[in-house]
Design brief:
This protein is about 40% helix and about 15% strand. The longest helix is centred in the first third of the chain and has 16 residues. It has 5 helices and 7 strands.
């Protein structure tokens, strides 16, 4: 599952993303994110603490720049273009807050045929994405959408 969101997260975004990462890992899902701070750090922390696999798709060339909760850092040297790889490595995505980078990941995911939901305040209004009320519901939704994606629908 891709979890996308703000590099500088509010306390509620951090808490939601950490709980989401934990729920996804407990369900056996790997978590893919951008690998840096904020929402990316929180989701990786929650997943790693629950024993899950965390993959960080990094914009730079140094694996050591990943947050400490990333188990598989993938340096790309692609800058913000790496956003395409974050969502391409997933079967569904959940956005937790965010700004322009998150919007680009949402757009790329939708173009790739992935379902995208939002947890908390979305990065923009009027996107027509499902608003998921809490991290547990978001995790279940993401897992269901991933299963449907694997089945071709």
């Amino acid at each position: 599952m891709a979890v996308i969101g703000a590099a500088e997260a509010s306390d509620s975004q951090y808490s939601d993303a950490e709980s989401l990462g934990r729920a996804l890992a407990e369900a056996g899902a790997a978590v893919v994110c951008g690998g840096y701070g904020g929402v990316m750090e929180a989701v990786a922390r929650g997943a790693a603490e629950a024993g899950g696999l965390t993959v960080g798709i990094l914009r730079g060339m140094r694996a050591g720049d990943a947050n400490p909760w990333i188990r598989v850092p993938l340096p790309t040297g692609l800058g913000e273009a790496r956003n395409a790889l974050v969502v391409a490595g997933a079967e569904s995505a959940v956005a937790v807050g965010g700004e322009w980078g998150t919007l680009s990941e949402i757009a790329l995911a939708k173009k790739m045929g992935l379902d995208v939901g939002t947890l908390g305040v979305p990065p923009a209004e009027g996107l027509g994405l499902p608003a998921l009320p809490d991290p547990g519901t978001a995790a279940l939704w993401a897992l269901e959408r991933a299963a449907a994606y694997r089945e071709g629908g």
